[in-house]
Amino acid sequence: MSPSLRRILRIASLAAAGLGTLFWLGGLVAAYAVPSARADGFHMLGAILVTLYWVLLVLPGLVLALLDRWPLVSALFGAVAMAVATDVVIPWLPWGLLS
Questions:
Q1: Nearest to 44 by CA among 30, 31, 25
Q2: Which has the closest alpha carbon to 18: 80, 51, 53, 61?
Q3: Residues 6+ apart with CB under 8 A from 65
Q4: What span, in angstroms and rounded, lies between the C-alpha atoms of 53 and 40?
Q5: From CA 24, how far away is CA 52, in angstroms rounded?
Q6: Which DSSP letter does residue 82 get?
Q7: Residue ranges in the chain assigned as alpha helix (H)
Q8: Which among 16, 32, 10, 11 is positioned nearest to 84, based on CA atoms?
Q9: Which residues are CB-contacts of 86 (< 8 A; sequence separation ≥ 6)?
Q10: Three-state SS for 96?
Q11: What is the rounded CA–CA span in Å between residue 22 and residue 54?
């Protein structure tokens, strides 16, 4: 793999990891912003799910990008993380047209 392609994939992975981390923080803020009168415990499922998203998709891509290992795998982690975050934030995107 050429050094320029490797650098582009690393930058894309780091950008996706940054956006994924912002999505994770936003999800935690939304989960903890539920008023105590409405807090029945189910709002914490959102915090758990968004943390799983960060640990399973964002963190591996970030670590691989920072270590400069397997740039294609790191970019794929970032692409999947962005696809999941985009589908959660904007669920009306026509993902069905891609298949």
A1: 31
A2: 61
A3: 10, 13, 14, 17, 71, 74, 78
A4: 23
A5: 9
A6: H
A7: 3-32, 43-53, 59-67, 71-89
A8: 16
A9: 93
A10: helix
A11: 10
Tens digits of residue pLDDT in 73-90: 999 999 999 888 887 776
Distance CA 90, CA 23 (A): 12
Of 94 and 34, more confident: 34
Encoded tokens for 56: 């399973």
* 13-35 confidence digits (pLDDT tens): 999 999 999 889 988 888 888 88
CA nearest to 80, candidates 72, 27, 26 = 72
The better pLDDT of the pair 88, 56 is held by: 56
Q: How confident is the model at residue 60 (pLDDT cuts 50, 70, 90)?
A: very high
pTM, entire model: 0.79
93's tokens: 């995107």
CA 72 to CA 84: how far, in whole Å? 18
